[in-house]
Structures are given as structure tokens and as C-alpha cells.
Amino acid sequence: MGWSRPLEGFAKQVERDIADRQREMVIFALQQLIQHSPVDTGAYRGSHFVTVGGRDTGRVPEQQGELALREAEMLLRADSRPFKVAYIQTNIPYGERIESGWSQQAPGGVYAIATNSTRERFR
Fold this sequence. Notes:
The protein is mostly helical. It has 4 helices and 2 strands; from the N terminus they run αβαβαα. The protein has a two-stranded antiparallel ribbon.
């Protein structure tokens, strides 16, 4: 009695499934950040972005949230390795103040709420 499919194919499918699940989690977390971001000019809402393999401390995008989602989706699809490290960040100067409750629109912060929502969803 043997396997109905070669194990190599099974392993590749598992890797694809893991990469797909990670992409789903990262996109959900980014959506949560955009959704819970306070809005004045919209700069903070559009400043969140995703990188893979390392942080980018020089980039400060100010774009629409939908553009940030499309960009992240393209990045994550282009790098389909399982177990990659993905970072979601903002480098906007007042981001830490917002996370500390500075904004009346987000008294509990933004990243903390997005983290908890993502953890609950994918538990």
C-alpha cells in the first residue's frame, strides 16, 4: 500500500496553503489598521504599509487606504514563500502619539486594536 500522491506535491500544497493563510492574515490586519485609523487629512490612514523581510524606516507613504491594500496584496502575492516575516508599519511622525491615545477618534490606539482583532479572527 502506498501514497495516492507523491509527498513532494503534498508538501508544495501545504506551503501554498500556509502562504495563502499568511497573506489573508496580513491583509486583514492592514484592513483593521485602515478602518480604525483616525481621520483628519487622511494622511495617517494612508500611511500604513507592508514590507517583507525587514522594516523600511525611510518610507512615509500618504496614500488612500485602498491603494495600500492593493500594494500589500501585490507584494504578498509576488513573494509566495511560506513562513516569511511580514511587517506592517507606519513611519508618520505622530504615529506613536496616536497609538498612545492622543487622538479622540482612536483613544485605544490603532495598532493595538488591529492586533487584537486579528488575533481573535485567526485564533
